[in-house]
């Protein structure tokens, strides 16, 4: 084991331990444990959002896809960028306003209050969706951590998985949401620096971009084609297959919870979009080119890679002195932890708060609820450990499967409930039930994470039509249509419609008081609505 790599990583680990200790002082109640008391600064919330979003997929799965597929993998980056922007435009500000109105701590809290569901079915379905797919998502992060430790320290993947589980579970149990947010801020910076440094070092080592493309073109010309060599309809399907991540952003509880915690919904527009968009562009650029250039290094005999998804840790060990490689390994582990910690927290809230407390009606004190949640975090981590040790260990595929289940389960109803006053609890129940059942059946039993013609009979025909497109992309729109149809056939309570109209009624864009017309019009409509809501004391 390289002592320099170990030293760099231990420095990073000590920093995480300090943040967990510091955050524990601010984690005394359920509200603080799950949403930080709704007083998180927009900079911290935004960086935490993105660090939670990209996970080990960014540092291992996506570079591995670029290594294997070449230029065509860039479409995944485009899908992620526009998905990020869609979240901040369609979900963030409105969800924060509604969450403030209802004092909602979790996504199920919001959905139950917004749709006035007294049956508890929305909360039960939400808990099932979160438990099933979030546990699978956590397992993908554990696998990513295992691969990183294996490449950096010369141990087995399974040993690396165990180390990841121990480190990550410890600080989530200790610090709750504050620990998650502020470690995410540190981790976001580690990820950014790693993905800027590694591609430039690779370019220098291989002799420039032209040299790299020559090597790649000689090995496989299709890797230099934006559609992987496909043309016509096949090219469109190829692009959709990679860019389909965009719809998933609208339904990820571990991401949208960040919007519920921010101190001021207005800041989720211009500051939030600017910070998030800039960070996203930089890291996606770096992750793609790390994998792309890593393939050139591999073909040139400069780099030895046993698994495409280990290309960045392999490049760090090859291109950097040991202590600096240790920090890069830490940066990769940062990506893994920054998502898994949020997912563990959301999963624990689904079981402890949404099911045990709200559905079963078990009355416990706020401090007791925090302690129960910590026990649930440990239990979910153990289940995720089992999946990670026994699963396929292909991070891109594992993340796509879990991402898709959450996207279909929550994305359509979240979007509709925030923008359409006619959304009903019946539509939500039927749509979420369909999304849960169909994703489990299609992805676990019939197709896997993407459509293919190998399924039997009628399903094989459908798989041939959409061959290569992720199941969740098509299923998202099917679920959306199901919710709309059922909502049109039922009727929402009048007070629910009235509240929606009151909160999001169009605010006149005219100057009032000391503000000039120009100053008022300089704001977006959402900012004016948020200002109106805050002034009325709704949020």
Automatic annotation (TrEMBL):
This is Sodium:proline symporter. It is found in: Cell membrane. It comes from Thermococcus radiotolerans. It is a multi-pass membrane protein. GO terms for biological process: proline transport. The chain crosses the membrane at residues 5-23, 65-91, 121-140, 160-182, 189-207, 227-251, 272-298, 323-351, 372-389, 395-420, 427-449, 469-489. Belongs to the sodium:solute symporter (SSF) (TC 2.A.21) family. Its main location: membrane. InterPro entries: Na/Glc_symporter_sf, Na/Pro_symporter, Na/solute_symporter, Sodium:Solute_Symporter. It catalyses: L-proline(in) + Na(+)(in) = L-proline(out) + Na(+)(out). GO terms for cellular component: plasma membrane. Keywords: Cell membrane, Ion transport, Membrane, Sodium, Sodium transport, Symport, Transmembrane, Transmembrane helix, Transport. Pfam families: SSF. One of its GO terms (molecular function) is proline:sodium symporter activity.
């Amino acid at each position: 084991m390289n002592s320099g790599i170990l030293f760099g990583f231990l420095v990073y680990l000590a920093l995480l331990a300090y943040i967990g200790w510091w955050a524990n002082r601010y984690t005394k109640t359920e509200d603080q444990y799950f949403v930080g008391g709704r007083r998180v600064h927009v900079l911290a919330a935004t960086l935490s959002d993105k660090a939670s979003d990209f996970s080990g997929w960014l540092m291992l799965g996506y570079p591995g896809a670029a290594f294997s597929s070449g230029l065509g993998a860039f479409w995944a980056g485009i899908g992620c960028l526009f998905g990020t922007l869609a979240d901040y435009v369609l979900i963030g500000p409105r969800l924060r306003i509604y969450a403030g109105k209802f004092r909602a701590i979790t996504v199920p809290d919001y959905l139950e209050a917004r749709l006035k569901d007294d049956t508890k079915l929305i909360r039960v379905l939400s808990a099932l969706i979160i438990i099933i797919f979030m546990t699978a998502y956590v397992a993908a992060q554990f696998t990513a951590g295992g691969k990183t430790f294996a490449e950096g320290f010369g141990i087995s993947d399974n040993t690396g998985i165990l180390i990841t589980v121990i480190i990550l579970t410890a600080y989530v149990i200790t610090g709750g949401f504050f620990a998650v947010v502020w470690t995410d801020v540190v981790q976001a910076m580690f990820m950014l620096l790693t993905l800027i440094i590694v591609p430039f070092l690779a370019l220098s080592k291989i002799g420039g971009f032209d040299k790299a493309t020559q090597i790649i073109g000689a090995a496989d010309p299709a890797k230099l084609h934006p559609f992987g060599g496909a043309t016509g309809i096949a090219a469109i399907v190829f692009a959709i297959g990679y860019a389909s991540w965009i719809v998933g952003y609208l339904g990820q509880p571990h991401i949208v919870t960040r919007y519920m915690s921010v101190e001021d919904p207005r800041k989720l527009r211009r500051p939030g979009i600017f910070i998030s968009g800039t960070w996203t562009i930089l890291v996606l650029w770096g992750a793609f080119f790390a994998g792309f250039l890593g393939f050139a290094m591999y073909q040139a005999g400069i780099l030895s890679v046993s698994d495409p998804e280990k290309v960045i840790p392999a490049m760090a060990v090859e291109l950097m002195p040991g202590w600096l490689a240790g920090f890069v390994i830490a940066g990769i582990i940062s990506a893994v932890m920054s998502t898994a910690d949020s997912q563990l927290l959301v999963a624990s809230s689904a079981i402890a708060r949404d099911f045990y407390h709200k559905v079963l009606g078990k009355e416990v004190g706020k401090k007791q609820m925090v302690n129960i949640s910590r026990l649930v975090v440990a239990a979910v981590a153990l289940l995720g450990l089992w999946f990670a040790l026994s699963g396929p260990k292909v991070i891109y595929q594992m993340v796509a499967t879990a991402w898709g289940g959450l996207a279909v389960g929550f994305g359509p109803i979240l979007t509709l409930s925030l923008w359409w006053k006619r959304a009903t609890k019946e539509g939500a129940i039927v749509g979420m039930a369909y999304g849960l059942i169909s994703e489990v059946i299609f992805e676990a039993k019939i197709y896997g994470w993407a459509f293919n013609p190998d399924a039997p009979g009628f399903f094989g025909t459908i798989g041939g039509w959409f061959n290569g497109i992720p199941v969740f992309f098509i299923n998202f729109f099917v679920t959306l249509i199901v919710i709309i149809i059922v909502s049109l056939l039922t009727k929402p309570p009048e007070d629910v419609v009235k509240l929606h109209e009151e909160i999001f009624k169009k605010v006149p864009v005219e100057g009032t008081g000391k503000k000039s017309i120009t100053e008022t019009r300089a704001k977006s409509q959402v900012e004016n609505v948020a200002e109106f809501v805050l002034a009325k004391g709704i949020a």
